[in-house]
Design brief:
The protein is mainly alpha-helical. It has 26 helices and four strands. It has a four-stranded mixed β-sheet, with no helix packed on it. α26 links the parallel β1 and β2. α9 packs across α14. The longest helix is centred in the first third of the chain and has 27 residues.
Length: 583
Amino acid sequence: MKSSRRLDLRCYCEPALILLLGLFLCLLGVTSLGARAVNFVYHSSLWAERGTIIAGLCLGYGLAGLGLAGLSFFSVARGHTLVSRLAVGMGRLWSDFRAEMEAFRQSDAGRGWFWPLAALAIGAGARGYYLSQPMRGDESYTFLNFANKDFLALFGYDVPNNHVLHTLLVKLSILLLGASPVSIRMPAFLMGLLTILLTYALARRLNPGPNSGRLAALSAAVFPYLILYSTNARGYTLIVVLTLLAALIGLKVVEHLTFGRVALLAFVSALGMLTMPSMLVGAAGVFCWLAAVLFVQTDRADVKKILLEFTLPFGVLSGIFTLILYTPVMLVAGGLGPIIANRYVESQTWPDFLAGLLPQSLKTVEELTRDVPMPVLVVGVGLALLGLVLAVRPTGYIKRDWQMRLTHRVYMLPGLLAGSLAVMLLQHTNLYSRTWIFMLPFIFVLADAGLGRLLAGLSPGWQSLAQAAVLVGALVYAGGVMSSNVISQYADTSAFPEAQLAVEYLKPILGRDDAVHVTGVADWPFYFYCWYYDVPVPLSQTKSGQGHTYIIVKKSRYSVNDMTDKSVVKLLDFNDLALYEER
């Protein structure tokens, strides 16, 4: 009895410690000690300007700690500490993961790694070819202003260009590999490869048949838009990976609804939000998809259960995790305002939004499908529609144990679109084309299902021949994408491939008093190569001293007359670059 009492008393240490921590944080919040404490942990003059933000965060976390202490007290009174409950939940998630890996190992996919590895090899080759292409404007800006500065700069948010989680990965990459275009793009490259494997895994989960996943993985490997952003140091391929992870975790949630699985789904969504707030589009889409599946496969009258065990925990936990992850950003940026109220996320007027909806939608489809031959595009869309129709009205070749997975698939695309469009309508803002990149793997999964249905009626020999033809077609297409060098020619994210040539030309002739004027679209690639080649150029907009003034013009956007009204001499003219010297 005494031993049991001592154990109970030890359990109450948890709420007591949380209570003390909450009180301590509240004390920091209502006094000036918060800024001193933060400065002690990481010394910076910035904290003197962030006193109000630090105090607010300390007070907020302190009050949350007091609430958590109360929750811990009631949990202990019922025989469990919060830590023990967390340990049990983590143990269940680990058991889920081990069971999933064992099931995959025993499946057809697990016994035959040729197809995912073949898709991975093709995807790595196509992406590796473009990994060292000239730096683009947006990735150059991110590197020079965030990743290549001190620790606090990683969390800066003066513009949404900083995809924070991706920038942290870039910082890690350049610390390990040194700074170069390849190492700066390595996180996006690796996420691009992981996209191939996760697309394969999702197709295997949703599509019946021994051949499932192959077309989906090969499509993800060679699709030009995915190659573009796998070789561009931005966070878009990370968003694709996190959306696919959310989908795979969500499928486990609808199989067996537990708090731990919902919490894991919310955490993955929060990681996407830390990458960029536009993850809200994909997260809302996945949520609507899963909610529809839960509503259909459970008792439809039990809406309360879906609300209390899925919708409410997912929404609350996603918000909590996102706020926690964004704490360093709020400290450095000066609150939530720069994150949620900057000019890049302002709502459009309803007339402007509605007028631009169709043109922007057409532009999005055009950009996402660039350089995909029309016959391939038509066949792919036809297969995707077939995969969707067969999910609604399955044919006899579908085994009974796949019926529920077809229910998952039939609501996938409508759910993703419904959630995404809901975010658009709430914000009434037409999204950038690249925001929709997360949709591509899901469309590949539907096309994979359509192909699987067409092949199901063939003999094994003909099935093998058709699959080999798909593989050869992917190889040929990837070779064409590389030989044409088409990805490097895309203008996305302020491309100016001639910036490297301009710096190499100017390096031996620039003097200390010289000035260089460069147009807005071409500036950051030029600044990057100045840094890369160690060119200490006074990049001023006014001529200083007796030096020369050089003008760099991106011809597709500007002319030299837009830059100066003085007489000039052309020094260099190559592709989209014109370099002048003022006289």
